[in-house]
Design goal:
197 residues; alpha/beta; six-stranded parallel sheet; 10 helices
Amino acid sequence: MIRILLADDEHLVRRAIATLLGLEPDIEVVAEVARGDLVAAAVLEHRPDVIVLDIEMPGMDGLSVAETLPGHAVLMLTSFGRPGYLRRALAAGVRGFIPKDASADELAAAIRKVHAGGRYLDPEMAASAMMAGESPLTERERGSLELAAQGASVAEIAAALHLTQGTVRNYLSSAITKLGATNRITAIRLAQQKGWL
C-alpha cells in the first residue's frame, strides 16, 4: 500500500480526493490536514510514503511546506498553475505537480510514479513554465514585494529585512521597473500572477 498524507484547506475537496483515492487498491490516505503548519507533525506521526500538498493553505503555503521536507516524496496539487510555482516546487525537490482538475486516474498515476521515485509534471503546466521564463526579480526585490503584498510599510519592510528604508525603496522601484508596472500594487499583482511571489 502507498500511504498518503493529504493537505488541503478546502474540506469538501480534501474529503472528495481522499474518498476517490480510497477506491484505489494500492493507495491508502493515512492522514489529512487542513493547514500547512500541521503537515510536519502529521508526517512524523503517520510516516506517509507520498505527501500530497495544496499550494494555497493557511498557516504555511504548500511550497513553503515542501521546502521543509527534503527527501520526502511530495506531489503538489493545485488550481494555480503559475509558472513560478512550478519552478519553486522543483527547486524544493517536489517530484510531482498536478492540477486539481485532473481526473482521479491521473492523480493516482501521479502518486504511483512519484512513489516509485519518478517525476510527474502536468504537460500544460510544464509548457507554461518554460514559456514564462525565469523571474527577473532578485531575492531582495522579491522579499520586499512579498512583505509589501502583506501590507507592510517601507519602514516595516526595512526592519524585517535589516535594510535601510532607502534601500527598500530602491528594491521596490527596481521590481516595479523590471515587471513593467506603474506602481507597487500592480507589480505585486503581476508577480503573483506569474507565481514569483
